[in-house]
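Lecture 7, part B: from sequences to assemblies.

Below are the input chains for today's worked example.
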Amino acid sequence: MVTTTDFRNGMALLTGAVNIITTAGPAGQAGFTASAVCSVTDQPPTLLVCVNRSAYSHGLLLANRKLCVNVLGSHQQHLSALFADRNVSMEQRFGGTPWSILHTGSPALDGALANFDGEVVHTHEVGTHTVFYAELRQVRLAEAPHSGLAYFDRCYHPVERPH
Amino acid sequence: MVTTTDFRNGMALLTGAVNIITTAGPAGQAGFTASAVCSVTDQPPTLLVCVNRSAYSHGLLLANRKLCVNVLGSHQQHLSALFADRNVSMEQRFGGTPWSILHTGSPALDGALANFDGEVVHTHEVGTHTVFYAELRQVRLAEAPHSGLAYFDRCYHPVERPH
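Predicted structure of the full complex, as structure tokens:
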């Protein structure tokens, strides 16, 4: 028997990247912070994102069936809290920083370490969450070698590039 | 169009934990290094692991339907290469370090930051890989506050605990 507390305390020790997931389409535009992003396969290039079904953005992802995963660098740590705050409107979230449009039309954060832009090709529901599988249509890498941003033991940590 | 090189260069910038996945059961015992591990939901406590279908351990995971995710600390970095080397036998991999048995019988690495021991409840094939969903039966945390181990930009990085 694994309690919610056991699970969360354990998962806090699984070092992860910090990402902003965006979507745009007929259902509207949204963006939120997520660490539950995982590479699946490079044939065809696919990643997955786990999203709580109670999240505002969940319905938009389901309807638009497009998303962009924006991997934050350490210089973008402030965006993590901004895009995780339910009291901050979508206008406020997107208003303060520059974005580009890649293949799917979902906002791609300028200066992110990487933008993974793709179409949702499969979803799978597990308990409170939906797993979205996205087949990538475009990948853009930052030109500057920014440091990475890791979340570990409930804190942010910069991760330097090797020299 | 996203090439394999684009995809891999992008994914190299997605900071991740370093884990050893183990399994034991009628099909035998195996262990391998994996970064593609992701929290799914805490109701019921579930994680997922993406495994290449060409990997030796893939068939054992499918047959045993049990696994343990062992999250490496920075003091265990040497185990990452050991468990990723196809020329190292399972006997050699498991021989040099102490293990425990938790609920499912899959080897749980002593001194890992966390051991997530669970049963495979669902699988999903995507291209070259299978995604294994495991419902957790036991979670064990390290007693000592070891530093974390991150993989970013194709190098290992220790991640200190906050003070």
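Note for the exam: Chain A has one domain: 4-159. Keep this in mind when comparing with the next example.
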